[in-house]
């Protein structure tokens, strides 16, 4: 496999724009493990191997269990996720596949049982952020496998 285009070299400001969104989500107070689950689930839906590789490694480094990562694509059938995580994962799927059915009122209400208005906006920003990263990685042919999380 070979990378098609190194967008970071061709247009470094594109990377800076994405990193600004990433910084917003980091500062939002969204729980780190939940954010990683969101990134992985959206990446699974989008088929972004680069991002799945990166964010599963980041999730493990943040203390996420392998069991929860292995079952993430079947989270509805697995008992290892909290109700708030389930609501966030359902929202992740709806926003990632927004052209299918939008975000139904019932889902919005389910999410709002666990997250206030500001947190809801932060969830949407996190979901949109990873969807953008996925589209950049897939479109430019980024290759999975090399990424290693920063050592703490």
TrEMBL record:
Gene3D superfamilies: AhpD-like (1.20.1290.10). Coiled coil: none annotated. It comes from Paenibacillus anseongense. This is Carboxymuconolactone decarboxylase family protein. Residues 12-93 form the Carboxymuconolactone decarboxylase-like domain. Pfam families: CMD (PF02627). It comes from the Bacteria.
């Amino acid at each position: 496999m070979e990378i098609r285009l190194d967008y970071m070299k061709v247009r470094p400001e594109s990377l800076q724009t994405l990193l600004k969104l990433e910084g917003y989500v980091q500062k939002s107070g969204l729980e780190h493990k939940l954010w990683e689950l969101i990134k992985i689930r959206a990446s699974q839906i989008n088929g972004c191997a680069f991002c799945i590789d990166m964010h599963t490694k980041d999730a493990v480094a943040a203390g996420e269990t392998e069991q929860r990562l292995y079952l993430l694509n079947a989270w509805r059938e697995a008992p290892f996720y909290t109700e708030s995580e389930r609501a966030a994962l359902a929202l992740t799927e709806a926003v990632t596949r927004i052209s299918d059915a939008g975000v139904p009122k019932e889902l919005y209400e389910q999410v709002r049982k666990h997250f206030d208005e500001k947190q809801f906006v932060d969830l949407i920003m996190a979901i949109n952020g990873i969807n953008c990263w996925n589209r950049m990685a897939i479109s430019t042919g980024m290759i999975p496998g090399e990424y290693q999380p920063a050592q703490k």
